[in-house]
Sequence to fold (515 residues):
Amino acid sequence: MRAEIRSPHSILDKYTALVDISCRLNSEKNFDQLLKLIADEATKHLDAERATIFILDKEKGELWAKIALGVSDTIRFDSRLGVAGAVLIAGKPMIVEDAYKSPLFYPSIDSTTGYHTRNVLSVPLRNPKQEVIGVFQVLNKKDGRFTTEDEHFVLALANQAAVALENSFALSDLETRQQELIQENQHLRKEIEERFTNKSILGTNAKINEVRSVIDKTAETTVSVLITGENGTGKELSARAIHYMSPRRAKPFVAVNCAALPEPLVESELFGIEKGVATGVERRVGRIESANGGTLFLDEIGDLSLTAQAKLLRVLQEREVEWVGGRRPIPVDIRLVAATNKDLKEEIKQNRFRQDLFFRLNVIHIRMPALREIRSDIPLLATYFLRKYSKEIGRDIQGLSQDATKGLMAYHWPGNVRELENEIKRAVVLAAAREIQVQDLSDPIREERLPISDADSPKKNGEKQTLKDRVTTLEIQMIRDAMGQTDSDRRRAAKILGLSHQGLINKLKRYGLED
Ligand SMILES: Nc1ncnc2c1ncn2[C@@H]1O[C@H](COP(=O)(O)OP(=O)(O)OP(=O)(O)O)[C@@H](O)[C@H]1O
Ligand SMILES: [Mg+2]
Fold:
């Protein structure tokens, strides 16, 4: 019968210690504690006095003690020095029996710490890529000398320490990155909040002032807002301003373009759909629910089908959504802002829009003026876009020539502010000089600024205009303004201009302004 060896530090104990550490490697989040435990096991099982885990600081070329049992001061030294330095360079374990007799020993650490090193067992720490990242060192075996068995055990511990270290580096990298992301997110959020207030709606015209003031007054509330206006008049810009000025600003702003939703998908997109409603269908949260706590912006609401309108109305009345294939309704808290370029009253007459839904949406109505109604703001908007795009494109364009500004002011802008924005962007790219000239503008604008009547054939750019040219230009401009202000009501426009109704019609014909 074989006698069982039962020393206090038997192989079984060491094995148990290694298994225990392995288990902790997977669960322990406090890596320093784990490293300390590893160092502890080393001194305990080797019956030694001290254990230190040195990490290589590659940039500085130094070794520093991450864990140093029995040492109060921080230790840091040139990574080429001492037994640890030699192990680092050789990449192999080393046992030094009498420290002060070894040429490798670096006594100045002893003099700083006041410790007396007698013998040393030092092994390299390797990461999974087998790169040496530090040194594991055990000092002063109390009885006798360090053995090969001790060396094997410390090597096994060193492997585990290396894994713990790598994990701790990865974790701290992750934490740093997460902190950076949190900060970046806060920064971006603040930037967005600042960008989308009613101050982002530029213009000093009374109609624009009114838009800003209504937004200001309704932002604090949760009432529904309907924004109408032609294409490119800033409906979405206003919707964002409402959201980012409201107490909901930290919650989502979800914009849905109803016109872009294919009919079969409208309901699942808006209300959500349960998995397996049809073969291959995955579970999908609806857009309404994803706006929970925030603002739902339904753009082009005039294009929503009657079925979807009925369901939307239900959501607004009950404040809950029912998923397609869902078992029970989910409560939602949304603020609704809707926009359209259609005349909803006309749509109601044609039975294409539900009147009850209209009343729900139209609690507050904001009408975005067409750009031709607010011509006085054209220079301001143009300058704003000019600065924006010069910076973005990287061209040093200083401004617009007087003629170019006049051209912009005379044009009728069917595409409104968006068209103006694109026009300026184009001109910034094309401009030959540091000032945008009339010839940098696109054809329709250049042509429209010149009189159209037979007698006044278009003049070439730069040629002097006659008094008659100028009067005609002014006349066209004033007629356009009056038509803009009155939504093309010819009788009211004629009154503003001091003309008879027929007189205005004649001029409209003569200048080709009938539409
Ligand atoms: N008053 C304004 N001040 C500054 N920028 C404006 C203004 N009005 C509109 N814009 C800009 O014009 C562009 C078009 O605006 P927006 O998309 O809000 O218009 P829209 O009415 O929603 O257009 P559409 O009907 O085509 O969807 C955007 O780049 C917007 O920033
Ligand atoms: Mg829009």
